[in-house]
Amino acid sequence: MRKVIPILYIASFILSCTSKESPDLETTAKDDAFRAGITSGKFAKLSQGYTYYEYANPSADTILVMVHGFSVPSYIWDSTFHAAVSRGFGALRYDTYGRGYSDNPDTMYDVALYSQQLKELLDNLEIDKPVNLLGLSDGGRTITAFASQYPLMVRNLIYVDAAGFESLPEKNEVNATVTDEEINAFKKSDQYKHMAAGQLGDFYDSTRFRGWDRKYETFMKYKGFVRALISTGKNRSSLENEQLKIAASGISVFAFWGEHDQVVKLADVKSNLMKRFPKVELFVLPKAGHLPHMEQAAMFNSILFDQVICCH
User: Fold this and answer.
1) What letters, b where the CB count within 10 A reaches 16 and e where it falls short, cover 190-228?
2) Under a CB-based contact definition with an 8 Å cutoff, are residues 189 and 70 in contact?
3) CB 204, CB 260: distance < 8 Å
4) What distance in Å separates the CA atoms of residue 21 and residue 48, rounded to the nearest whole number?
5) How many structural domains comprise the chain?
6) How far apart are alpha carbons 277 and 282 in whole angstroms?
7) pLDDT tens track for 47-90
8) What mean pLDDT comes out for the span 208-235?
9) Position 188 pLDDT exceeds 80
């Protein structure tokens, strides 16, 4: 497959992008009229704005909560969400701030914001039982922060090609702002122009997923999208202490990885994963890239429901 620049690290190469005029796609505000036009899911008004979510089988004893990654919103969980629903499990997926249909607040996009969003959403939906918490890619950072803060609310912690295991400088606080110059520079770049098409690079073999990039284009039109991406990339800090705290808490931890992931390469983070979670159960799925739950849906679901959810 062709080599692509992982969108996960967008902030690190903004200034090195080749300047080229690209149309500014951000034309739509997420206001009341916008929300009224969304016919799927629901909205919860939380402290930082409206959060879009879908919640099925709310009376089920077992609940799966799915947190998406860096830029593609909650529809990325389609195969897992529907598999959970068909099995009678409670299933909750939502768009994080700055993505999908949720609000794009003018704030710092860091892991504390996303952990707070998740906690407020669970409280809003009156979910007070321990949940199976799945984090895909950058969603792995969110579920790490959440589980370290609220261990009694987590039944199983399930990472899918997750970020957060890279070695970063220890920082207690990150507060990097985003300038208009950075936003404008990125919108003029080739990376912005080809951002939707680049999503196909998340697959080992994208043949079965033609049209995936066109769906992404829809979500690039919302005002504040680029700012949220840049802010998220600039406000990452080490989660090693949180992960060690989770390991000490006794929460069961599982990790899925696509064998051919080029975005978060297992070889680059496996040592930290095993060191921080010595008891983690790791499943490496063949012929899969960054999205093994999609490329190997049957295998992924079999392991998830028949080995993890059923038995822990």
Assistant:
1) ebbbebbebbbbbbbebeebeebbeebeebbebebbbbb
2) no
3) yes
4) 33
5) 1
6) 10
7) 999 999 999 999 999 999 999 999 999 999 999 999 999 999 99
8) 94
9) yes
How many Cβ atoms sit within 10 Å of the Cβ of residue 256? 25
The 8-class DSSP code of residue 19 comes to B
We report the CATH number of the domain holding residue 292 as: 3.40.50.1820
| Model-wide pTM > 0.85 | yes
Mean pLDDT, residues 87-94: 98
User: Given pLDDT bands bounded at 50, 70 and 90, which one contains residue 24?
Assistant: confident
The token duo for 222 is 């919302």
- Say which residues have a Cβ less than 8 Å from residue 37's Cβ, sequence separation at least 6: none
Note down the domain range covering 232.
28-309
> In whole angstroms, what separates CA 117 from the centre of its chain?
13
Q: Is residue 21 part of a domain?
A: no
| Size of the chain in residues | 312
Q: Does residue 189 lie within any of the structural domains?
A: yes
- The stretches of the chain forming alpha helices (DSSP H) are 32-36, 78-86, 111-124, 139-149, 180-187, 190-193, 195-198, 212-219, 225-234, 240-249, 266-276, 292-295, 297-303
pLDDT at residue 171 is higher than 90: no
Residue 101 per-residue DSSP state: T
Q: What angle do CA 246, 252, 253 make, to 5 degrees?
A: 75
